[in-house]
Amino acid sequence: MNPKKAVLLPKYLKIFEQLGENIKLARKRRKLTTEQVSERAGINRTTLYRIEKGDPAVAIGSYFNVFRVLNLEDDFKTLAVDDEFGRKLQDLDLL
């Protein structure tokens, strides 16, 4: 079976690219090598390279493990935490 590849519009790919750049900067600020981070995250260096490039095809668990290694897991927990639009839709349904 062939898994389907996620198709993202260019404006959304830019978000992933910025995320990857932020991860790379966080790693460098901590003076960690790609080898150290990939080993601690349980991924290979190629996967870390893809994460730092913002590849949306990399599993979210791999992204999380890199966040964990960089002590950024609290940042990861804030993803989608404030679903203002969803709450408005829910409130409309309650009327």
From TrEMBL:
Record domain HTH cro/C1-type: where: 23-54
Gene3D superfamilies, sorted: lambda repressor-like DNA-binding domains (1.10.260.40)
Pfam families referenced in this protein's UniProt entry, alphabetically: HTH_19
InterPro entries: Cro/C1-type_HTH (IPR001387), Lambda_DNA-bd_dom_sf (IPR010982)
CDD domains in UniProt: HTH_XRE
Originating species: Maribacter cobaltidurans
Signal peptide per UniProt: none
Designated name of the protein: Helix-turn-helix transcriptional regulator
Domain of life: Bacteria
